[in-house]
Amino acid sequence: MNYDRILVRYGEISTKGRNRKKFVSKMRQNIYHVLKDHSDIKIESTRDRMYIHLNDTPFDAVKDSLSNVFGIQSFSPVVRTDKEIESIKEAALSLVQKSFTEGMTFKVTARRSDKSFEYETNEINREVGAHVLRNMEALKVDVKNPDINLTVEVRAEGVYLSCEKYQGAAGLPIGTGGKAMLLLSGGLDSPVAGYYMLRRGVEIEAIHFYSPPYTSERAKQKVIDLAEVLTKFGTSIKLHIVPFTAIQEKVQAQVPENYTMTATRRMMLTIADKIREKQGGLALVTGESLGQVASQTLESMLAINEVTSTPVLRPLIAMDKLDIIDVAQSIHTHDISIQPYEDCCTIFTAPSPKTRPKLEKVKYYESFTDFDEMIQEAVDQTEMLVLPKEKSENDSFADLL
Ligand code: ATP
Ligand code: MG
C-alpha cells in the first residue's frame, strides 16, 4: 500500500478566525507554485487542514519543496481507508512493514474525532498494535521513544494512517501580509532579510542598485541568482535593477569623502521609495544589522532614514553575523553571496566613512547639486525581471544534451 495523499497541518493560520479562508487559499496557491512540475497533484483544502492528492507523483519527489512553503506547521504522507477495523489493520501492517528495518521499535497513536466510530482510542491502539505485532515477529513496542510512530486518525469521512511526520516551514502564507520592496545587494544579509519577510507572509519585490562599468555583469547575475533562490519559497519575484553609476559618480565628486556613504544610502532609499510607490508596495526592507558597519549605527540610520516616512523594516537588526550566516546556509543563499564579485557600494567605499553622520551636514553637502533629476532618471531607466525565469525552448533543449 502506497501513500496516496499528503496531510498538511496549518500553523498560525488556525488562529485566523474570519480571515482564515484567505490564508488557506493563498497557501494553496503557493503549494501549487512550488509543485508546478507535478501537474497531476490536486489540493483539497478544508477548514483545518489540506490534503494533497498525489495521484502518480511519489511523496519523495515533493517532500523537499513542500517543506519550503510558509504557513505549514507539519505534514505527513497518509493513506486513507474506510472506517472498518479490518481495513485499518491491513493498511497499518502494510505501512509499518514498509518503514521497518532490523531492530526498530514502534507504537500506535490513535485519534478519534468521529466519536460514532465503534472503537475507542485505546481499543484502536490495542487492536491495530496487536495485529501488526502478530504479523511482524522482529518488531518490538516502545511507547516512549519509538522508531516508528503509526498514527491512526478516525474522521467522519474516513481513516488516515501514517508512519511519517515532517516539520513545515511555519510562518504565514506569502501574499497574506501585503507587499514590500527588498533592497537586495549581493551580500549575505539582504537575502536573509527577504527570507524573514516572506516567512511572515509578505510578498517581496527586490531592488538592486548596480554601477557598470565599476561593477560587472557577474555581480548583477549574482543578485538575479539570489532572488531566484528566494522564489523557491512559493512565489515569483520581480527584480528591479537600477542604474546607479551616474549618481554614485556625482556623490563622489560633490560630497566630502567621509559623507559619501551617508549620501549614497539616502539616494538609494529615495529611489527605492519611488519604485515602491509605483509598484504599490507598503514598506522597504533592508539587511541592516545594528553596528555591523558604519552605515548601520543608529546615528547613520537616523540620517539616512530621514528621506522617507515609509516604514523601513530591518528584520536582522538585532541578529549577530554568525546567526545570519547560519540562516543563509540553511536557505541556500550563502554560497552565492560569498562569490567575490564587487557590489556598487564596496567599490566607492571611503576609507573612513562617518559612523556618526550629522543630518544637517549631509543635507548641506547634497544641497549643492540637483539630485532630483538624476534620481528620476534612474527610476525611469530601471529594468525589471520576473523570476524564476521561464525556461525557453532552447534551455530545455540544452538540458537534453
Ligand atoms: P548585505 O550583506 O545585505 O550586502 P552588508 O552587511 O554588506 O549587507 P551594506 O552593504 O551596508 O551591508 O548594506 C546594507 C543594506 O543596504 C543591505 O542589506 C541592502 O538591503 C542594502 N544595499 C546595499 N547595497 C545595495 C545594492 N547594491 N542594491 C540594493 N540594496 C543594497
Ligand atoms: Mg553589502
Kindly describe this structure.
The strands form 2 sheets. Strands 1, 2, 3, 4, 5, 6, 7, 8 and 9 form a 9-stranded mixed beta sheet that branches. By secondary structure, this protein is of the alpha/beta class. The chain is elongated. The chain is built from 15 helices and 15 strands. It has helices spanning 20-34, 59-66, 85-99, 121-135, 189-199, 217-230, 245-254, 260-279, 298-305, 321-330, 334-337, 344-347, 359-366, 371-380, 393-400, and strands spanning 5-10, 42-45, 49-53, 72-81, 105-112, 140-141, 148-155, 158-162, 166-167, 179-183, 203-210, 237-243, 283-285, 312-313, 383-387. The longest helix has 20 residues, at 260-279. Residues 392-401 have low confidence and may be disordered. The protein is 40% helix and 20% strand. The protein has 2 domains: 5-167, VC0802-like (2-Layer Sandwich), CATH 3.30.2130.30; 179-400, HUPs (Rossmann fold), CATH 3.40.50.620. Bound molecules: adenosine-5'-triphosphate and magnesium ion.
